[in-house]
Amino acid sequence: MIKSLFLFLLAVLFWNCTGSTSENIEIKIASELESDLKDGRLLLIFSKNHEAEPRFGINDNVGTNQVFGMDFENFSSGKPLIFDPKSFGYPVENLHEIPSGEYTVQAFIQKHETFTRSDGHTVKLPMDQGEGRQWARAPKNIYSTPVKVNWEKGKSLTLDINQIIPPVEEPQDTKYIKHIKIKSEKLSEFWGRDMFLGAHVLLPESFEENPNQYFPLMIYHGHFPSDFGGFRTTPPDPELGDDDYSARFGIYGYAKMQQQEAFDFYQKWISPDFKRFIIIEIQHANPFYDDSYAVNSANLGPYGDAITFELIPHIEKEFRGIGEGWARFLYGGSTGGWEALAVQVFYPDEYNGCFAACPDPIDFRAYTTVDIYQDQNAYFKEGEFRKTLRPGHRNYLGHVDAMVRDMNHRELAIGGDKSRSGDQFDIWQAVYSPVGDDGYPKPIWDKYSGEIDKEVSAYWKENFDLRHIMERDWEKLGPKLEGKVHIYCGDMDNYYLNNAVYLTEDFLEQTKNPYYDGKVAYGDRAEHCWNGDPNLPNYITRLRYNTMYLDEIQNRFLKSAPKNFNQKNWTIIK
């Protein structure tokens, strides 16, 4: 009798803690939006900001909106989706722990498509729709009009998905800027469907008037560009005032400043004594991210080969590029900085120099603040009697506002456990990891707990740890990389990327037969993404990527270009 009473009281307690607060959330979808909906991820987003759409307010900071996510498959037309209250959330993990109060709430569906890849795996992933794989802005994704609700535990809620994101408008060609798009045979074969690469091409002054001139190629790597950036043929908009504020840089009038820099670049570009060359910005968004990291990958396919051997030769043939490795230069920052160095390392004969600013981790002993080889857990630094969360983001004073766990849990809520968030740690994992048994990237660590998989870290080391690869293969690579490697980073990089640069510099400075003969430089107290100028603030130099490295490139030409190359205007007559 006593035992039965105890079990009854325990059941009542359990019911009060769980069952009585079970939320019933129904997501209805307008009939006209159901036609191509089959698989996807449903997000439920809460916000205390009643002026902005909740989908645009999810971030790593303490001011983030709340999001929960769940996958669904084989959607049945005419039936609502029932949101699973056990779905994982960020920053609050459990739906029943959301405090009572007034919120603006929105439901959002990121659609998944089915890919039957040449490696034998069938996977379901969100396809880029021309926006650069940004889930909150991707055409064809659908969402509800935000509504205010008085939320309380156990609440029933119905949301109506009645909006669809429209197609992206393609940019138009101008005198100087051309846009190309080609089908990649290599990528199409891997993905089992037509896959494309694009580029925005900035042509030199007098290109049409001089049909016998051929030009070197500057390849700018970075995140997905909607059009060629930082080039403007008209002065700044006179209606722009100085009252707009850049929170990132803490200054007013930044929009006007950006337009002025773009116009100044145009004026330099057309001046008679400016170097003549072609600049390209590549579009290579894919089902995992806004770009591919420009290398061959088990999960993404042969993007390195596709860019180097399909896209770039096509551009050079179309726009009179010289078409040889000595006349191609790589540059970029952050993601683009890693790509510039990686492409130079993996294709040393095809390019004649890289200028890698604030690169993503180039030595995985400092994978941001994690050593994936020695550490057991990515989220915690552990001792015998306590453990401490690892920092993920800081300012120039070292003040931390996000932890590595925060950043990964946000991705877990948005994209689930198959690297589908379209964000930073997931794309690193997609690029660097082997394919798992389920066809998705094998996790470097458990996305929830942070426990590191040492078999995966060993694979990363041999295939994508750029410092390790250079050191391992220096006897073969060294002669091909001599004078080509230039790395720049702020010593207070927000994502601790300078730590991997320090380790890489240690190796480069000890190289022999040959000495690497490049450059590594640091910006004092400079944040992400310092690119090499010690005399100007970062908010200016980041607008001058296209002109910053021209002196170094000219020096490289003097050492390596053919004797008949015309240094005066960087052209060669054929």
Description:
This protein has 574 residues and is of the alpha+beta class. It has three domains: 22-164; 177-363 and 465-573, Rossmann fold, CATH 3.40.50; 366-462, no CATH class. 25% of the residues lie in helices and 24% in strands. It has 14 helices and 28 strands. Helix 9 (466-472) crosses helix 10.
List the helices and strands and how they pair.
Layout (H helix, E strand, L loop, with lengths): L1 H16 L6 E6 L9 E9 L18 E7 L8 E3 L5 E2 L10 E16 L5 E4 L16 E3 L2 E5 L4 E9 L12 E7 L1 H7 L4 E7 L10 E2 L2 E5 L23 E2 L4 E2 L1 H17 L7 E6 L12 E2 L3 E2 H16 L9 E6 L1 H12 L7 E4 L22 E3 L4 E3 L1 E4 L5 E4 H12 L8 H9 L21 H11 L1 H7 L1 H8 L3 E6 L7 H12 L9 E5 L14 H4 L3 H4 L1 H11 L11 E2 L1
Parallel strand pairs: 1-10, 14-17, 14-20, 20-21, 21-26, 26-27
Antiparallel strand pairs: 1-4, 2-3, 2-6, 3-5, 6-7, 6-8, 6-9, 8-10, 11-12, 12-17, 13-28, 15-16, 18-19, 22-23, 24-25
Helix pairs in contact: 9-10
Task: List descriptors.
signal, 574 residues, 3 domains, Mycobacterial_A85_antigen, Esterase, 8-stranded mixed beta sheet
